[in-house]
Amino acid sequence: xxxxxxxxxxxxxxxxxxxxxxxxxxxxxxxxxxxxxxxxxxxxxxxxxxxxxxxxxxxxxxxxxxxxxxxxxxxxxxxxxxxxxxxxxxxxxxxxxxxxxxxxxxxxxxxxxxxxxxxxxxxxxxxxxxxxxxxxxxxxxxxxxxxxxxxxxxxxxxxxxxxxxxxxxxxxxxxxxxxxxxxxxxxxxxxxxxxxxxxxxxxxxxxxxxxxxxxxxxxxxxxxxxxxxxxxxxxxxxxxxxxxxxxxxxxxxxxxxxxxxxxxxxxxxxxxxxxxxxxxxxxxxxxxxxxxxxxxxx
Length: 298
Ligand code: ADP
Prior knowledge:
Elements: E1 20-29, E2 32-42, E3 46-51, H1 58-65, E4 73-78, E5 81-82, H2 86-89, E6 92-95, H3 107-118, H4 122-132, H5 147-158, E7 165-168, H6 177-190, E8 195-200, H7 203-209, E9 212-217, E10 220-226, E11 235-241, E12 253-255, E13 258-263, H8 269-278, E14 283-288, H9 292-297
This protein binds adenosine-5'-diphosphate.
């Protein structure tokens, strides 16, 4: 039998076991299957965007990976260890939808508190505080922070202790585009040489953050590969503004509260935003009107 050793350097390919193994896995709740026969292996550090519409099974995939849900059949391993084992859990951290940070604690004390729990040091707390770029906010109470600042702290918290695998469940859901891009930028900074699974239902976001995609369709694996393999025909975005405009430059029409814009692809979005800002348009939200994923899920 091959001896398994998980104390190899992060990002090393010397291990014989995949960093993440999901082999013919079916999993769900109270006997009802949500994931059916899903298989993939991750060997290389990168950001893997777990894509799928709401209800597809992304959170169920994360809970199964984290050892919270025991699969009905198949094998789930982290670094060669079964997902429910202590050795697997030590290699992984999981950001769920819930912050779980006490509102009354100052940010820096909250980070110290969690550092204590996970066995991280004061140096780790300082590293995370620096990376979070919170400045004076670190002495504020968590409850006084904005939604985006809270999420920054929550994301930072799971990076206190170095792990091989991080699961981030829709870290930018319900955020305005500026906050969302700050969170993505933070994840990119924190995640070097790590395996990150980052779930989203937005292909625009997926292209911004990652290069690899794990696409889940009705609980089945629809794609494990490069995001560039996801083909889309048209690219239509909608922009909601702070104030109603009599006339919106470059727009092709309106749908509900959203001004519509037809673009060649997501790469054109920053340019459009810059042009609109120059014209004094105050943007509240940018979203894909036809989520190109819908084409994929037909
Ligand atoms: P996603 O994260 O892609 O939005 P989920 O994994 O949360 O999808 O949900 C997939 C399916 O599992 C949905 O049909 C949902 O209703 C069901 N589900 C999620 N959580 C539970 C639960 N705790 N108990 C029972 N069913 C659940």
